[in-house]
Each structure stands twice: as structure tokens, then as C-alpha cells.
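Below is how a single chain appears once it has passed through the pipeline. First comes the sequence as given, then the structure the pipeline wrote out for it. We keep one example in the README because the format questions we get most often are answered faster by looking than by reading.
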Amino acid sequence: MQRARSPFRALAVLGLAATLAACGFNRKSEPPPLGETFGADDTYSRTYAVPPATACEATRRALLGQGYVIGKNDGDTLQATKSFQPESDIHTQLKVRATCLAQPGGGAIVFVNAVQDRYVLNTSVKSASVGVSMIGSVSLPIGTSGGDLVRVATNTVQNQDFYRRFFERVAAFIPSTEGLGPAPPPAVFETLPDPEPPAPLAPLVDPDAPEPR
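Resulting structure:
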């Protein structure tokens, strides 16, 4: 004979199923890695009404004007670096990469990204053994050596103000006449012909004058 199921057990099973379903429904979507969203903003690019070569030359001048060292320049791609030392044992290096491409409708688009590397000075201390009577051998530091920079962090700069100011400097080095069409030809004024001389007027006749015989 089959034993009847307890109503409390059935209610517990239904409650557990409802709880699991609610957890699955209310579960939030996993955030993108490190805040990467692939948004439609133009933080890293700007368009200019000039050829790509002119846009890249303006980019190069903007970087040189801010103290960057140009390390690579292939015409449509360039890379520049600038070093900083915020503290005595901390060094940072900013690498800026720019690529200039032609736009389908004319002009150029400049893509820029900056990567910041952080280095820490790693030093080691040398020691030497000195013999002392009645004590023995004693190790004493005699100086430092092996000072090497060790990279401890790398990140892509995402500050929008940084890129906005950079693109403003690029625009300042673009000639204002670049990208414009040829100058219109000078206006041609049609020469009008000289007016014809007026027809001679008929002499006036005095009605009271006697007729000639």
C-alpha cells in the first residue's frame, strides 16, 4: 500500500522551487570587465576636414609642443613617449599612439590612445665581511648597486579631459586653409558695347515764316 505524501512536504518543495526561480529572475547581469562597455562615444577619436597626412603632421607637432619624444612615425601612424618622476623612487612613462585614416566622405579621422606605465626603483645593498679581533667576522653594508626600474602597473588612460585637450592642440596646428576647395575664379564683368549715337533731329519750322519762293 502506497503511503500518502505529507502536504507539508509538498508545500516545502513548491516554496523551494519558487525561491530558486525568483533568484534566477532577479539576478543582475555580470558587469563588463574593468568597466569596458564599447560605447558609441568619441573619446579616442576626432575628425578633421584635412587629408590624413596633414592630420598626422598636426598630431606630431602637438606632441612635440608638449615635450613628447617621437619614437615612431610611419606617415599614418606615430608613437611618442614622455617620462615623469612624481617621487624619488617612482617613475611613470606615458605612451601616446595615434593613427590617421581617410574618411569615406573626405577628411581624416585620428584615433589616439595613451598608455601609462609605472615603474619602481629596485635597489640591492652589498655587504662585506670585516674581521674584528675578539668578535669575529662582521658583515657591514658598503654601498648600493643593482638599481633597476621594475614595471609594476600599466593602464590605458581613460580621462576624457585629457583627450579633449589633446585634440584641441591638434586642431590648433591644422592650417585653416587645408581641406578647402580651390579659390573661386575672379569675377568677370562683361563689357557692354558703346551706345549708338542718337539720330539727328529735324530742323524746327516756324509756321509764321513766309514760304520760300
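The CA atoms of residues 131 and 137 lie 4 Å apart.

See the next section for the split statistics.
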